[in-house]
Every structure is written in structure tokens, then in C-alpha cells.
Amino acid sequence: GMPTRENWQEQIKLARNKNVYIESGGITWLFHPEFYPYPSAAFAIKEAGNICGMDKLMWGSDYPRTMSVITYQMSYDFILNSVWLTEGEKLDFLGRTAKEFYRFGDLAIPPAITTMVD
Predict the structure, then answer these.
(1) Rounded distance between C-alpha atoms, residue 104 and residue 106, angstroms
(2) For the chain, does the N or the C end have fewer beta carbons within 10 angstroms?
(3) What are the respective helix, strand and coil percentages of the chain, to the nearest 5?
């Protein structure tokens, strides 16, 4: 579902099927010319959610490919700061869907690791 391509919404419709989910790794790369905070990328995620439900979409960073352009934190902050998505949609997209999909139990949040690309 590459939202920079014509008729990308047709691919998103596939996620209406029971065992089909969509991961968003690379979306910041697709909207690189726009750059952070990627409002068009966030709008595309909202549009995809309207097509198949936010419970079928998962965040992805596409790291390390994107680290030459943005930090890892920026790859999800654009979702946290989006005006297009509700708080519930952000929770679904940034973790709740993946937690259910992979059947993760309660996971501890690891401590932040500071690196030169943070």
C-alpha cells in the first residue's frame, strides 16, 4: 500500500480480509521530500485506517535505512504529533495492533539507549 502511487487504496482493501495486516515501514521514506513531521504520511495512514480499520495497520520505522535522514524517534513522533489521528488510533497503530497480532503479553519497556542517531 504505497500511498505515493496511484490507486494505492486498492491494496489497502486487502487488509479487510481476516489474516491480512499492513505494516508501515518506509512511509517516511516515501514522503521524504515533504520531510518531518510528514503530514501527508499521517493523513495517508488515517485514510488507510478508514478503509480497513486501524486495528489492521501497524507502525514500522524502516530503520536503519532511514537513519541517514531522520532519527528513530522521529519515525514515530510524527504519529504521536499528528492532528489527523485520534489518541485511540495512535495507540492501535503504534503498538496495540502488533501486540495482538504477535500475541505478546505484557512487555516491559526497555530503557532508552542513546546513540549518535537519536
Answers:
(1) 7
(2) C
(3) 45, 5, 50
AA letter at 7? N
Contacts (Cβ under 8 Å, ≥6 apart) of 14: 20, 52
Cα Rg, the chain, nearest whole Å = 14
In angstroms, rounded to a whole number, what is the distance separating the alpha carbons of residues 69 and 28? Answer: 10
How sure is the predictor about 118, in pLDDT bands with cuts at 50, 70 and 90?
Answer: low
Q: Which residues touch 48 (CB under 8 Å, ≥6 apart)? A: 1, 3, 9, 12, 15, 22, 57
- Going through 1-118 in order, the beta strands assigned E by DSSP cover 22-23, 57-58
The pLDDT-based confidence of 76 (bands split at 50, 70, 90) is confident
pLDDT for residue 14: 96
